[in-house]
Amino acid sequence: NAGVTQTPKFRVLKTGQSMTLLCAQDMNHEYMYWYRQDPGMGLRLIHYSVGEGTTAKGEVPDGYNVSRLKKQNFLLGLESAAPSQTSVYFCASSNRQGSYNEQFFGPGTRLTVL
Amino acid sequence: ILNVEQSPQSLHVQEGDSTNFTCSFPSSNFYALHWYRWETAKSPEALFVMTLNGDEKKKGRISATLNTKEGYSYLYIKGSQPEDSATYLCASRNSGNTPLVFGKGTRLSVIA
Fold first, then answer.
1. Contact A42 B89 (CB under 8 A)
2. What is the C-alpha to C-alpha distance for residues A21 and A68, in angstroms, rounded to an integer?
């Protein structure tokens, strides 16, 4: 059981470039989430998905798009990267959005936008 | 948006000391409170999920309490060890259909 995996682990982009971060989980979880973590800001939710084919905006969705074409994968896209998107990105999944189901986190992707 | 606050922001304790920190959340429309432990260079890992007023949970030397009427939760660590050094996150949600909102965390350093 790999749990939640993220690809890539590190990436450096130039302003204006695009990229896609991949999150995969093998726990058959319904819910998946993308967060960004910045110094002094904690974890902030970018987008989330409550099931295959569905997505919803979180607290800081601007500049990002997501897709959930398969239940096990949740993609985060940056169409035109900006220095403000330099951050560590964490993906998480949970069995369902019920009260007792904790989130399982991936190892993170460190993104630098120059 | 739900506001979850944690205090203190950081804490340094000596090995063997007991310590505690606070998570505050809106008491209206409370649904669940989660605690996560986040070691440097690793991912957050769940410690506790609590839903009922007066809930107390324990895992080894770490325990947590919940007061939903006044909107706070305490995390206690008894006899801190260097391996307890981590950031402790709490998160709350106000319904079963809304995502968790995380606090900014309390960074604990235990000095040997």
1. yes
2. 12
Question: In angstroms, what separates the C-alpha of B52 from chain A's closest C-alpha?
Answer: 11
What's the start-to-end Cα distance of chain A, in Å? 36
Would you say B21 and B69 are in contact if contact means Cβ atoms under 8 Å apart?
Answer: no
What are the pLDDT tens digits along chain A (114 aa)? Answer: 789 999 999 999 999 999 999 999 999 999 999 999 998 888 999 999 999 999 999 999 999 999 999 999 999 999 999 999 999 999 999 987 555 678 999 999 999 999
Give the DSSP letter string of chain A. Answer: ---EEEE-SEEEE-TT--EEEEEEESS--SEEEEEEEETTTEEEEEEEESSTT--EE-SS-TT-EEE-SSTTEEEEEESS--GGG-EEEEEEEES-SSTT---EE---EEEEE-
pLDDT tens per residue, range B43-101: 999 999 999 999 999 999 999 999 999 999 999 999 999 999 999 999 998 887 788 99
Q: Which of B7, B100, B101, B104 is the mutation pick for testing A, counting most A CBs within 10 A?
A: B100
